[in-house]
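FAQ

Q: What does a record look like?
A: Structure on top, sequence underneath. For example:
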């Protein structure tokens, strides 16, 4: 049995029951539609306060994943400004339910844009957001002008964030599928990420349906994808951080068994 905290992405309606059914100590979920600019919605019966109390009583750690379309790096005002607003709304909601962190993708700038503008937009976003819970920057799989796909871009984004007031509330989430598909070699990924950020706060443990460097963000069950099993287990183990599954829900039991056997 691993000493690492294991969790899974679940439906938010009754996440404590979802955790109990899987025998895990943490869960992640969306608060509303991940593909919408509409603000967060808490579906749990009893609302945010009841969810917070139930999680505390059960000893279950809650994490919120921000909507996919949030892009605070972009130079497009019609996307960046609503993204900042939506990020704050989800930050507020995450704090209301007592979440341990809010995970957000790194975003991107346009193909013809100077990436330096994207890095600085991240700095501005941190300074303009009231970080009530840790904000966890997640590496992403695709995009030539992405802020958090390649290690050099992650380094520049992190450097810009560190210049912002409130930077101490920003952490890092390492996604194994995204790293593989994004072209980051898994063998020394943890070492290289830590050299940049000094920390890994959460691991998204996912296998990849696609080849290394493909840029395709398609998760699959652990051991069923294209990442060599030993490499996948090694990167998860060496990160030494809480481990969150984002694999198909009907196979979570198999994935948890896979993790416990190897960690």
């Amino acid at each position: 049995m691993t000493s690492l905290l294991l969790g899974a992405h679940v439906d938010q309606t009754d996440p404590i029951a979802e955790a109990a059914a899987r025998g895990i100590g943490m869960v992640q979920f969306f608060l509303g539609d991940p593909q919408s600019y509409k603000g967060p919605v808490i579906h749990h019966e009893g609302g945010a306060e009841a969810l917070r109390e139930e999680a505390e009583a059960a000893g279950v750690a809650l994490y919120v994943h921000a909507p996919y379309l949030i892009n605070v790096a972009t130079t497009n005002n019609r996307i960046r400004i609503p993204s900042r607003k939506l990020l704050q709304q989800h930050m507020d909601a995450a704090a209301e339910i007592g979440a341990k962190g809010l995970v957000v993708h790194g975003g991107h700038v346009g193909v013809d844009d100077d990436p330096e503008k994207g890095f600085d937009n991240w700095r501005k976003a941190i300074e303009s957001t009231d970080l009530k819970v840790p904000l966890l920057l997640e590496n992403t799989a695709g995009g030539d002008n992405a802020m958090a796909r390649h290690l050099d871009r992650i380094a520049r984004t992190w450097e810009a964030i560190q210049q912002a007031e409130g930077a101490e509330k920003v952490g890092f989430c390492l996604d194994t599928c995204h790293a593989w598909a994004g072209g980051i070699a898994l063998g020394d990924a943890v070492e290289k990420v830590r050299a940049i950020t000094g920390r890994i706060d959460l691991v998204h443990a996912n296998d990849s349906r696609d080849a290394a460097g493909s840029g395709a963000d398609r998760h699959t069950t652990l051991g069923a994808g294209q990442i060599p099993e030993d490499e996948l287990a090694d990167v998860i183990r060496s990160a030494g951080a809480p481990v969150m599954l984002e694999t198909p829900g009907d196979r979570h039991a198999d994935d948890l068994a896979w993790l416990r056997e190897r960690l």
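Q: Is there anything notable about this one?
A: The beta strands are 6-9, 26-29, 61-65, 101-105, 135-138, 170-175, 202-205, 207-208, 219-220, 243-245.
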